[in-house]
Every structure is written in structure tokens, then in C-alpha cells.
Amino acid sequence: MNLAFVAQSGWGKSYHAQAWMESNAEEYGALVVMDYCAEYRGLVKAGIADHLIVGPVEAQWSVQDWMAVLKANPRIVLERHKAEIGTDRWRDICTRIASAVRRLDRDQLVVVDEAHFVAPQRTKLPQPIKELATTGRGAGTSTMWVTQRTAEIDKTILTQCQARMIGGFDGAEIGPLAGSINYPADLHDPGADLLPSSVPDDLLPTGRERPTSLQKTKDDSGSITGTEWIYSDDDGDRRRVDTGTVSMTSTHYGSEGNDLNPPEYA
């Protein structure tokens, strides 16, 4: 299966994605995580995966080198060295990793974080990345393409996904995925106020009548305790889920970023 895992920034995307990785790790012979932002170290600390920081030395490795590394470490988080490896260089490295993955005959889950940098719409899609998305399923490979920028990722990637986990988007800007869903796209806009009658019964929220669109839940201190998502696939399965009910052993260490505080105005 190829899964598009998308939501706007701040929707708990990497947390939810990590829960999927953890729950599926034992179902596959291998797990390869291309970690652009160093957000999945929790899988390493929990003993679910090994860890490798990809820096200037690793950037020189050939496809054969990567095959050897992936064979020796079936479950591994490949973390980009932020200070040393820029976006273009990371895309080149991921292309070689994808080639190595494709040559390994095994059941494996491959996760591409910040996938719009690895497969950008603005440049020609590298053949190994395209093959990972278009032919990986038949070779026993499943993929997760994690992004918040659907307009910037190559359309081939999203259109080849047989399943979608979509969170909130202001203005319901879900881009190429809009044609893959059979419910109102505005359901993904937290600010939309759709009438319950316009939302399929199986996608209505539980415990409240409105708003019907996907929402974040917060505790009394204002901290986010969960976000709502919609899962759908080409087999007709679809359901509304809340990450507040996710059970996960590993700790998520993703950065939430720093706030900007306004100055005092006279």
C-alpha cells in the first residue's frame, strides 16, 4: 500500500505518522524512515529502529553502500544532518536510498518525511523515487509520503497512493487529493461550518453535533490533546479518527517550533 499522510503544519502530523510507523514496524521485515527534520528519534529510543545521522560522509555512499547498510539494519531511521545536508543534497541521497530499497527483495515499509522536498513538483521526478511510488507495492514494499504541502509534491506521488490519511487544512487546500475523496473537501477545513446533513453519516463527529469539520481538541491549559483526521482508501474504507485516542509506546520528540509574542502596543 502507498499512503498519502498529509495535514497542515501544527496538526500533529509527525506524531500521528510515528504512531503508524510503530504499529506497523513488526508487520514488515524492514522499516526505512527518511527523516528530514529529526522527528522520529522516539522509535530509536524505544528500541523499534536503529539510527543513523546522514552527514557528508554518508552523502558520498553509492547505492551498493546503502544496500549494505539497509541489509545490516533492517529497521532504521535515517536522520538528515541539518547543518551539513541541504534540501537538494538530501533529495540526491534519498534517490540513492530509494534505489537501494528497490533492489532489496523483502517486505518493507518506507517512510518519506517532508516528501515535497524529496519529490518536488518543480523538478523532474527522479526515476527511483517514481518507481518507489508506482511499482513498490508489487515488490512487497509499502510507502508513507508525509507532507503538509500537497501543491508542492509531485502529483505522480499522490495519485499513486491507494490510501489517504488527511488532517486539517485551512481553506480545505488538499490539492491533488481532492479528486480521490468522495466527501466534501471542506470537511478538512477547521473553520468550515458544514451542516450535518451535508456530511456522510460515517464521517460525522462523535460527541458533538457541530462543528462537523475536523477540529483540534485542547485541555484547560490550551495544550493540544488530539486532532481529527479522515482515513480513506481505494477499497471503499473510510473513517474519522482522533489522535487523542492513539496508543503509542515510543515518545515523540518532534519540534513544535517557537512562538512569536507580540510587542506591547500603546
TrEMBL record:
Record-linked InterPro entries: HerA-like, P-loop_NTPase
Amino acid composition bias (Basic and acidic residues), ranges on this chain: 207-221
Compositionally biased residues, Low complexity: 193-205
Lineage of the species this protein comes from: Archaea, Methanobacteriati, Methanobacteriota, Stenosarchaea group, Halobacteria
Domain of life: Archaea
Ranges for region Disordered: 192-266
Protein name (record): Uncharacterized protein
Residue ranges crossing the lipid bilayer per the database entry: none
